[in-house]
UniProtKB/TrEMBL annotation:
<dbReference type="GO" id="GO:0016616">
    <property type="term" value="F:oxidoreductase activity, acting on the CH-OH group of donors, NAD or NADP as acceptor"/>
</dbReference>
<dbReference type="Pfam" id="PF13561">
    <property type="entry name" value="adh_short_C2"/>
</dbReference>
<dbReference type="InterPro" id="IPR036291">
    <property type="entry name" value="NAD(P)-bd_dom_sf"/>
</dbReference>
<comment type="similarity">
    <text>Belongs to the short-chain dehydrogenases/reductases (SDR) family.</text>
</comment>
<dbReference type="InterPro" id="IPR020904">
    <property type="entry name" value="Sc_DH/Rdtase_CS"/>
</dbReference>
<keyword id="KW-0560">Oxidoreductase</keyword>
<protein>
    <submittedName>
        <fullName>Short-chain dehydrogenase</fullName>
    </submittedName>
</protein>
<dbReference type="InterPro" id="IPR002347">
    <property type="entry name" value="SDR_fam"/>
</dbReference>
Length: 249
């Protein structure tokens, strides 16, 4: 098993990519903290992990709130005694042209997608420093590397995650804390359902993806597994694009 006895916190694990990461980590021997702001989704993930004979606990967490993050790490330590892996995956998307974007929507997206990464890393890193090692995997997006129309705050937040990943990697490499980032392409989850239910939009996205299918949450979970495992010990500050060739053109 590639994560035998590791303790992993996964934010946004109540759905989509985060749920797939929780399941594959548990199947590879990790004990998983499912952190999500939705109780229903979080509990469903815990049930799915348990049905696969894995171990998981749900902690209701809004990653944009420092007090929730503090509780998330405290409860993880109370349950499992340490934190080996943090996956900063929680994210939201708001659509609209930039000049029509409200300040509230801008703040909401930046608070969850980018500030959430800062808050969770800030609380987990001291534990990893004490332990002498750790793995942090941030989930960004291809929208942090190239422009996408109509999702300005999202692009800004994901570009920020990529920059922060490199900064954190430099800061903590000497402490054997690896910080890497995954940039998914178009993945079939609740976040993209609206787009993909529209056949014209879906066909357009499929046409832009060289590989002959769109992404599944498991495609990202397998990349996260590599970056969370010992196999990637010499990999840090990396932006791993998982997009079926979307950006290769
Ligand atoms: N689906 C895609 O095509 C795609 C592409 C690139 C990047 N991503 C990124 O992948 C990550 C996961 O997205 P997904 O596609 O699985 O979407 P999703 O909507 O299925 O899952 C997002 C999860 O994050 C949770 N969440 C949202 N705000 C939160 C908060 N403040 N605190 C705690 N939990 C919160 C939601 O409840 C949900 O369970 C996101 O960061 C997203 O930006 C997705």
């Amino acid at each position: 098993m590639r994560l035998q006895n590791k303790i992993a916190i996964i934010t946004g694990a109540g759905s989509g990519i985060g749920r797939a990461i929780a399941l594959i980590f548990a199947q590879e021997g990790a004990k998983v903290v499912v952190a999500d702001w939705t109780e229903k989704g979080g509990q469903e993930t815990v049930e799915t992990v348990k049905q696969a004979s894995g171990q998981a606990v749900f902690i209701k967490t809004d990653v944009s709130q420092a007090s929730d993050i503090e509780k998330m790490v405290r409860v993880c330590l109370e349950n499992f005694g340490r934190v080996d892996i943090l996956v900063n995956n929680a994210g939201i998307l708001k659509m609209g042209l930039l000049h029509q974007t409200s300040e509230e929507d801008w703040d909401a997206v930046l608070s969850v997608n980018l500030k959430g990464v800062f808050l969770a890393s800030k609380k987990v890193i001291p534990e990893m420093l004490k332990q002498g090692q750790g793995k942090i995997v941030n989930v960004a997006s291809v929208a942090g590397l190239v422009g996408f129309e109509g999702i300005g705050p999202y692009c800004a937040s994901k570009g920020g995650i990529i920059a922060l990943t490199r900064e954190m990697a430099l800061e903590y490499a000497k402490n054997k804390i690896n910080v890497n980032c995954i940039a998914p392409g178009i993945i079939k989850t609740a976040m993209t359902k609206g787009m993909l239910d529209d056949s014209t939009t879906r066909q357009g996205l499929e046409a832009q993806t060289p590989y002959p299918r769109l992404g599944e949450p498991e495609d990202i979970a397998l990349a996260a597994l590599y970056l969370a495992s010992d196999e990637s010990d010499f990999v840090t500050g990396e932006i791993l694009v998982v997009d079926g060739g979307f950006l290769a053109k």
